[in-house]
Each structure stands twice: as structure tokens, then as C-alpha cells.
Amino acid sequence: MGIIEQENRYCAQNYKPLPVVLVRGRGVYVWDEDGKRYYDMMSAYSAVSHGHLHPQLVAALTSQLSRLSVVSRAFYTDNLAPFLEKACTLSGMDKALPMNTGAEAVETAIKAARKWAYSVKGVEKDKAEIITCEGNFHGRTISIVAFSSEQQYKAGFGPFPAGFKNVPFNDAAALEAAITDNTAAFLVEPIQGEGGIIVPDDGYLKACAEICRKHNVLLICDEIQTGLGRTGKLFAVDHDAVKPDGLILGKALGGGLLPVSLFLSRKDVMDVFTPGDHGSTFGGNPLACAVGLEALSLTVEQQLPEAAAKLGLYFMQALQNIQSPIIKTVRGKGLLIGVEVNADLASAREICEALMQKGILTKETHETVIRFAPPLVISKAELNSAIIIIKQVIEDFSG
Ligand SMILES: *Cc1c(COP(=O)(O)O)cnc(C)c1O
Q1: pLDDT at position 1, please?
Q2: Quick one: pLDDT at residue 124?
Q3: Quick one: pLDDT at residue 142?
Q4: What are the residue boundaries of the structural domains of the chain, listed by start?
Q5: Which of 64, 339, 343, 357 is most deeply buried (CB count within 10 A of its CB)?
């Protein structure tokens, strides 16, 4: 049995991977079992923003691994505080709660917002509402898919918890109209990643922030995918100079090595949690903290947001310059770029398969959008080589 058949036999079929078996990674490259090299234009949905096996991240992990790994938060450890101080300082937040996966940090944000609504805002018991956006993606738990507008994410998984309400994305007036006395929070991605790399108008988030402040509603930004430099700023909210009341980080926070996530917020929000309210066995473990701290430091030291801004603009222009009827639009910010193909003329999946043949790995999102999100450490020379291949593949498809 080949490895692909073996995986198909023993692994749940909740993904449909491209037919390539990866065995090694370094920087912007990954290699398959035949030694063929590929550009990684997925970066594990932005979890590998620092590139594969960044030596400083590997050093931080192995050094911690030789000392102490997992003890749970029943005890203090010596690197949780430095990690959270760094995260709070960089984001302008007061406090943080460590979790592992993104979805767990989103769940944490929802719990914080609800409890804040009851204990601080004065919402009547069990009446708190959270407003989210159509086309959102915040993870896969039951309560998170409860407010997904994607039917497939929900079908067959009900019943769902109540207390969520969707409004159109990029429509601040719709947000304001949906707010009631029971509204605890507005949970939003500054750019919708899984929704198809949807970039709202400049000023949208700023308008949302003002509306939230006016109505005493928490603005909680999910920057699990857009955070840590991906869009050309340290946080995507910085494009609009917005300071949210809560911020959710994950993916790249784990340096491509471990699942590390955080919910960060103002003190009066975080202080709703008391011992025993919430927790996670692995959340804030020493390995995660060592890697998270190094991932944050590296992002700043190596000026990854600046690199993403500069190379992202260059990459997006190069993609826009490809003259092809199969390209409908190219959109994005920084190194989070989506190419929407004309569904009548080409299938995004087939283009991804052709790109794979030529040494570029990426995946379609929402059937018609091809994601280009390389590690932020990509050099201009590497990007240029990748652009030549992409151009050629798209031109081949254009007939
Ligand atoms: C990936 C993602 C999540 C979920 O993170 P997991 O680690 O897969 O649970 C949540 N929100 C956004 C915006 C994401 O891109």
C-alpha cells in the first residue's frame, strides 16, 4: 500500500490533499519523497510565516526541550510571563490567556465577552449576543460553526448554541443596526482569510470600532491568520489604526513548530475570569511559551511586517500583470493574496494541481480562489522564480 492509500485508509477524510507526500522543509521550500522541491505558497494557512524550521525557532524549542516541557498551569513556570508580557506590549493589550489552537482562543474570546456582558455591562442572564460577519471563518468547534454562514461547515452538526447573529462583512451600518442592549461583542477578521481573502474598504474597521465604543460593545479582532506581519503590518488592525478590545492570535505565533494561541484583551475584560472558570492542559506550556516568545521577537527583529508589505505589493502587481481571461481578480494585502479565477473557464483545483507539477504548492479556497501566502522570509529572488512559474502555468491554462 502506498502512503497516500494508507492515509486514505486510516485517516478521516475531512481533507482532500493534493497528491504530494512531503518529507522535509526549510525556509520557503518543502520537498517530497522523490526529492522534488516546491515553493510553499500555503505556509500552512499562515502558520509557517517564519519559514520552515527557522534555526532560531528550532534553537528556542530544543533549548527549552532540554530543560522543561509540560507541567500544566497548576504551577508557575519561568517563561509564561515573559511570553505574555511581550505579546501584550506588542499588541497594546493588558493581559493574555494562553491556549493552543486558534479555535480554542476564539472560544476563550466568546466566553470572556459573554461573562463581561453579564458581570460588567449588565446584560440579563443568558441573553448576551455576539455579532459576527457573513463569510467568517473562526474555526471548527460546534459553537464557532454555529455562526458560520457556510452551510457545509454546519450541515449535520446541529443543534447549535444560540446567541450569535451575522451581519454582512464590510458594512458598518449593518453592524450598528444589529446592535441591541444585549450585544456583548462584535467578532471580526480584519481580512477574511478562509472566506476567500476578502479585504474590506479602508476605514471599515475604524468605523466598526467607533460604533462598538458608542454602544459599549467589545470589538474583538480575530488575527489568527492576519496577525504577526502577514498583511504588511504587525497586526492587520494597524492598517486602520484601530485598537480592539480583544485580539486573538494563533497560527504564526507557534513559529510553524507548535500550536500556540492567545486571547488578549483589556484588563476589565480579562478579569472576568477567576480560577476554575476556564483552562487548558497544554495552554501556556513551557515549550509553547519558548517558541511563542521567539516567534514574536523574530517577527519584529527581522522586520517581517515590512518585508510582507514590500514584497506583497510587488507580488500582487506581478500577478495583476498576468494577462489572462481566467483571472477574474487579484486581491489581498501584504503576503496574503488571493487570485480569483473565472469559474467558467478554469477550476482553481486544476490550476493548483498544475502549479504542483511545476514546483509550487498552494491550495484553492472557496473553489475559485487560489491562495498565495508564502513564508514572510521569502527573498525577492525566490519570489521572482515563483512568479515565473505561476505566470507560465496560468498562461498554459489560458490556452
Ligand atoms: C485558522 C483560523 C482559525 C482556527 O484556527 P485553528 O488553529 O485551525 O483552530 C480561526 N480564525 C481564523 C481567522 C483562522 O484563519
Answers
A1: 85
A2: 98
A3: 98
A4: 3-53+303-398, 55-301
A5: 339
Residue 363: other Cβ atoms inside 10 A: 19
Q: Which atom of ligand 1 is nearest to the CA of 139?
A: 4
Do the beta carbons of residue 196 and residue 365 sit within 8 Å? yes
- Cα(265)–Cα(95) distance, rounded to whole angstroms? 6
Cα of 161 vs centre of ligand 1, distance in Å, is 19
pLDDT of residue 399: 74
Beta-bridge partner residues of 99: 261
CATH architecture entry for 3-53+303-398: Alpha-Beta Complex (3.90)
Average pLDDT over residues 277-292: 98
**CATH number listed for the domain at residues 55-301:** 3.40.640.10
pLDDT at 302 over 90: yes
* Rounded Cα gap, residues 282 and 259, in angstroms: 10
Distance between CA atoms of residues 83 and 288, nearest Å? 9
* 137 is an active site residue: yes
Closest CA to 248 of 193, 170, 303: 193
Mean pLDDT of the 213-222 span:
98
CB neighbour list of residue 109: distance below 8 Å, 6 or more residues apart:
185, 187, 220, 222, 246, 248, 263, 265
User: Which amino acid type is present at position 374?
Assistant: P
pLDDT in tens, 46-82: 999 999 999 999 999 999 999 999 999 999 999 999 9
Using the structure block, give the residue that is written with the C-alpha cell 519558548.
Answer: 290
DSSP secondary structure, 264-303, as one string: EE-HHHHTT--TTSS--SSTT-HHHHHHHHHHHHHHHHTT
Atom of ligand 1 nearest to the CA of 250: 7
Catalytic residue among 83, 137, 273, 282: 137
**Stated pTM of the model:** 0.98
Protein residue with least CA distance to atom 5, ligand 1: 102
Distance 193 CA to ligand 1 centre (A): 9
Closest by alpha carbon to 218, among 140, 144, 132? 132
Quote the pLDDT of residue 300: 98
Q: Which residue is it, cell 467578532?
A: 187
In sequence order, which residues have a C-beta less than 8 Å from that of residue 173 and are 6 or more positions away?
none
Q: Which atom of ligand 1 has the smallest separation from the CA of 101?
A: 7
